[in-house]
């Protein structure tokens, strides 16, 4: 059977490179007093001193050396994968922080030309809270105005009901049992005739007064011719006066007609006032509807502000957690745990 090759002969580059690089890097690191970066430390994780490797190979055999090399390669690959994952998470966290910084820098929380600082963000949130409180106060005022409008609307409805009852009473008073009598009272021709008769009565009264004065001036006897004529004329005048008295009774009818006309005009005024009141009531109803809409809009805005505040708080909390993790993560990595044992073995050799 062919003899198996020596591990150093089977992997000439790996053994030489691992031993040489590791010893050179370690000596340079110790001389300069600086620690190696995390990447270099991982790259040298599977490297041991050549003498120690030869001793272990001689003690364990070629199979154990190959298994050790494979395990070291696997651990190196795992470390590289972990490093890549951490770098990806770091990049994503940096991108997230950059996004938030840009968002706050472009938003209203940061003044023009300033940088997004936590104090400015807190001030902006406090301003949002104060605006929310002012909106709540406006909402309370709107509710009070709404209650006042409702009370005013109830009073207006009561006034409308009172006016309606007054109109019904006036209609009952104006309603007459005879439609012909109403037409007769409201006829303009009859009114004109009444005024003519009134003027005629005034003229007749003047004539009667003159005749009375003449009678008093002239002494006469009832049996005389002039006396009989005067008596006949007085009778005719008294008859005319009676007729005039009947006509004057019609003046009351005319007065009633004028009162009815005035009541109609008053009724028309009440109707106009009622129409104006109904229009005012419609305006109040529209104002109440607008106030309801304003209240609903303010409630929606308050809910949106609450949602934005909660969202900003959650995002700030996540950002603080990311920053805390970043600050708690060590920036430099300590020496590899196996270096101490390697140094002791080297000193013993």
Automatic annotation (TrEMBL):
Subcellular location: Nucleus
Region (Disordered): 1-63, 320-349
Keywords annotated in UniProt: Coiled coil, mRNA processing, mRNA splicing, Nucleus
One Gene Ontology term from the biological process aspect of the record: regulation of alternative mRNA splicing, via spliceosome
Ranges of biased composition (kind: Basic and acidic residues): 31-59, 320-332
GO cellular component, one term: nucleus
Segments forming a coiled coil: 76-221, 253-280
Presence of the UniProt keyword Repeat in the record: no
Compositional bias (Acidic residues): 340-349
TM region(s), chain numbering: none
Pfam families assigned to the protein according to its UniProt record, in alphabetical order: Wtap
Superkingdom of the organism of origin: Eukaryota
Family, similarity comment: Belongs to the fl(2)d family.
Name this polypeptide is given: FKBP12-interacting protein of 37 kDa
Provenance organism: Iris pallida
Source lineage: Eukaryota, Viridiplantae, Streptophyta, Embryophyta, Tracheophyta
């Amino acid at each position: 059977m062919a003899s198996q090759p020596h591990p150093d002969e089977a992997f000439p580059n790996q053994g030489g490179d691992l031993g040489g690089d590791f010893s050179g890097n370690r000596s340079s690191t110790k001389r300069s007093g600086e620690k190696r970066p995390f990447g270099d430390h991982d790259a040298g994780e599977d490297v041991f001193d050549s003498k120690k490797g030869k001793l272990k190979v001689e003690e364990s055999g070629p199979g154990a050396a190959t298994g050790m090399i494979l395990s070291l390669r696997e651990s190196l690959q795992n470390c590289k994968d972990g490093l890549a994952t951490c770098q990806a998470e770091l990049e994503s966290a940096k991108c997230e922080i950059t996004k938030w910084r840009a968002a706050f820098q472009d938003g209203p929380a940061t003044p023009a030309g300033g940088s997004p600082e936590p104090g400015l963000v807190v001030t902006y949130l406090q301003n949002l809270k104060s605006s929310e409180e002012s909106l709540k106060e406006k909402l309370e005022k709107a509710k009070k105005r709404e209650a006042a409008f409702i009370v005013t609307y109830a009073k207006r409805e009561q006034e409308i009901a009172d006016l309606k009852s007054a109109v019904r009473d006036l209609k009952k008073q104006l309603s007459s049992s005879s439609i012909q009598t109403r037409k007769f009272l409201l006829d303009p021709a009859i009114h004109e005739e009444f005024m003519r008769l009134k003027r005629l009565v005034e003229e007749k009264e003047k004539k009667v007064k003159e005749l009375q004065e003449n009678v008093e001036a002239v002494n006469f006897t009832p049996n005389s011719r002039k006396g009989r004529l005067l008596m006949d004329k007085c009778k005719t005048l008294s008859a005319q006066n009676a007729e005039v008295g009947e006509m004057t009774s019609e003046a009351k009818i005319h007065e009633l007609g004028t009162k009815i006309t005035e009541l109609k005009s008053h009724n028309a005024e009440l109707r106009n006032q009622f129409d104006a009141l109904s229009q005012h009531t419609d305006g109040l109803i529209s104002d109440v509807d607008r106030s309801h809409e304003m209240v609903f809009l303010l409630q929606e805005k308050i809910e949106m502000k609450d949602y934005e505040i909660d969202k900003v708080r959650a995002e700030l909390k996540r950002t603080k957690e990311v920053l805390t993790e970043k600050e708690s993560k060590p920036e430099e990595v300590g020496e590899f745990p196996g270096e101490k044992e390697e140094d002791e073995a080297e000193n013993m050799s």
